[in-house]
Design a protein that fits this description.
11% helix, five-stranded mixed sheet, mainly beta
């Protein structure tokens, strides 16, 4: 099962449409705060793409065979503090 979730807390499961929860769409934060929150609960940075950017963090829950991918507007590597937002997926 592949589920895309927008930060920070999974909302009401009754709002899931097309395997997406997007009730946090459009929320703004900064890249360091996002990284700090997500890494504290076990998320990892996704692959670095062309241009030294990445656009999501992910976590796999092996007990439930459940994958969560949190997408945002992106960050460069090495990371610098800048505004970022949750994106529709």
């Amino acid at each position: 099962m592949y589920l895309i979730v927008i930060p920070f807390v999974i909302g009401d499961v009754n709002t899931i449409k097309n395997n997406t929860i997007d009730d946090r769409k459009g929320w703004l934060t900064d890249s360091f705060t996002l990284r700090s929150i997500l890494t504290k609960v076990g998320y990892q940075r996704n692959n670095i793409e062309d241009g030294a950017c990445f656009y999501s963090y992910y976590k796999y829950f092996s007990d439930n065979q459940f994958y969560i991918n949190i997408e945002f507007s992106g960050s460069y590597v090495p990371e610098k503090k800048h505004s970022c937002g949750a994106l529709p997926c």
